[in-house]
């Protein structure tokens, strides 16, 4: 097939748009959509964008594209944050990818070891929970902890925004899971950033890019990233939802886009605002009196 | 297994609650939930409830239970509306079920033949659309047309409410379809009744009763209803969504309830109000200047 845009040899069929795209037009298409989703309010002078870079394909592609956009804009920059949770045999590899990537593209970066923040690694936290027979989902803990640390450092560095590498598949799955669970609070938190001087506004530059295209972009551009999954990853419910959405996308191309765009319309009309408090233990922003990380640390007898 | 409530022999395992129920406790459970979903604002003196009765299991069970509730309440009554769309070999059977049912339980009823309302049957409408090569989904047309007629007659009869026999499966499917399509307007229309003097408020007494339980209730009580599906029914997309929700309900009992209760919470916080106009052709309430039925009739050259 020929590229629907330029007539060269197509390498990708974008079912939801009906287009066939060649390598160059595919790359342009991804970058154009990322640029559009950010808009002129973000891609402009005097911007500092914090970027959460894990070393996986999504955050690597996001950082690469953001760097491409911002390296030519005067007085603007991106700064990478890598949280090293302390997962033996896994995070050292990611760390190496992240450092090599940032040095290659001359991007400022900051490594945030959990050991320095909480005095303990995720491996040890999981071990202690097991020893004490306390149910702890490493992914849930890691999620709130990373969110907290990324915000803390983005604020410290004076970032205007914090970019997170969720792709279209991730976001449509999260929306669907919360629709099904009927969790209004989680839906609001997913769609609206609470306004607070201690919270850096989050952006999701890849929110309209399907995972398949993020992967293809990385491969076509020749980006290196960590391929193996986290040893703690156990995403059975999410995998179930992912399978459902994949199937629907297959029979009705555009399903993921309509889930996300419908949700964005919906959330604009919701009259719920999330309250933001400051954690009585660590002083970081929190939805409750004590933030979830400090609650866990207390529960595990690891109060810092 | 023994009934979790009374210790008799259980005939049903209600997975989402964990209960085993005997025949009597099952029937009580269904009726208690219908009563609760209606509440004391509806089950009281001086009420007139219009009931859309199609002759299928859902509306038969709904009408039977509503009649049971209202027959002992002074100055309150239910009145059945049966729309005869004119579907040869199908609606005559339904009509017979409906008349026998209403006469057996001494319920006032009104037959509304489409032929008298629009001067034409659904069969002829479908035929004309085919002859003129106009794409018309009989189910969509029938849906808006029945909605319009039920409202018209409920208003004419002075009903305080109009009861529709949608069960938990129907409603969770509709919600999920609209979440996936991202149709905010349809979600609002599904969850909130527009306020207008020409619109009778709709209630869905079976909204928390799974289809499986409606079926079992009908069989246990010995209700007769039309079993064959409408010859026009072609619900491929709905069937796909239904299959997905059935599978999720199976692996996570309670999914349907959480979809519906989450949606009800969500809709309360939506600041969208549907505008209600009156159709310039027929004078009935409509979301546009001309109602969907009149639009269709014009398109088919059947303007009344």
Automatic annotation (TrEMBL), chains A, B:
Segments forming domain tRNA(Ile)-lysidine/2-thiocytidine synthase N-terminal: 49-230
Sequence positions that bind Zn(2+) 2: 279, 282, 291, 294
Gene Ontology biological process terms, A to Z: tRNA wobble position uridine thiolation
Stored Pfam families: ATP_bind_3, TtuA_LIM_N
Cofactor field: [4Fe-4S] cluster; Mg(2+)
Binding site for ATP: 52-54, 58, 83, 165, 170
Database matches in Gene3D superfamilies: HUPs (3.40.50.620)
An MF annotation (GO) of this entry: transferase activity
Source superkingdom: Archaea
InterPro entries per UniProt: Ncs6/Tuc1/Ctu1, Rossmann-like_a/b/a_fold, TilS/TtcA_N, tRNA_thiolation_TtcA_Ctu1, TtuA-like_LIM_N, UPF0021_CS
Binding site for Zn(2+) 1: 3, 6, 22, 25
UniProtKB keywords: 4Fe-4S, ATP-binding, Iron, Iron-sulfur, Magnesium, Metal-binding, Nucleotide-binding, Transferase, Zinc
All residue ranges annotated as the 2-thiouridine synthetase TtuA-like N-terminal LIM domain in the record: 2-27
Listed PANTHER family: ATPASES OF THE PP SUPERFAMILY-RELATED, CYTOPLASMIC TRNA 2-THIOLATION PROTEIN 1
Protein name: PP-loop domain protein
Organism whose genome encodes this protein: Methanotorris formicicus Mc-S-70
């Amino acid at each position: 097939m020929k590229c629907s845009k330029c007539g060269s040899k197509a390498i990708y069929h974008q079912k939801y748009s009906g287009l066939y795209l060649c390598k160059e037009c595919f790359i342009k298409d991804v970058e154009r959509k990322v640029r559009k989703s950010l808009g002129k309010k973000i891609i402009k002078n005097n911007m500092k964008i914090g970027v959460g870079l894990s070393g996986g394909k999504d955050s690597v592609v996001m950082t690469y594209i953001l760097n491409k956009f911002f390296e030519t804009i005067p007085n603007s920059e991106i700064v990478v944050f890598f949280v090293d949770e302390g997962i033996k045999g896994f995070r050292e590899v990611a760390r190496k990818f992240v450092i090599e990537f940032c040095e290659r593209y001359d991007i400022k970066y900051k490594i945030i070891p959990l050991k320095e923040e909480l005095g303990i690694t995720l491996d040890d936290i999981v071990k202690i929970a097991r020893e004490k027979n306390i149910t702890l989902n490493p992914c849930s803990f890691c999620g709130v902890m990373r969110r907290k640390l990324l915000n803390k450092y983005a604020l410290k560095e004076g970032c205007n925004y914090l970019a997170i590498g969720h792709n279209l598949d991730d976001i449509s799955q999260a929306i669907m899971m919360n629709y099904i669970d009927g969790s209004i609070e989680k839906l609001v938190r997913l769609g609206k950033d609470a306004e607070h001087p201690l919270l850096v506004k989050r952006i999701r530059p890849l929110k309209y890019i399907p995972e398949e295209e993020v992967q293809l972009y990385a491969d076509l551009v020749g980006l290196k990233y960590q391929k193996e999954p986290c040893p703690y990853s156990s995403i059975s419910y999410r995998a179930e939802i992912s399978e459902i959405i994949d199937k629907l996308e297959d029979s009705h191309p555009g399903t993921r886009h309509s889930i996300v765009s419908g949700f964005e319309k919906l959330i604009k009309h919701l009259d719920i605002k999330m309250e933001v408090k400051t954690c009585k233990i660590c002083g970081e922003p929190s939805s409750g009196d004590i933030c979830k990380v400090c609650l866990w640390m207390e529960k595990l007898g690891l109060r810092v």
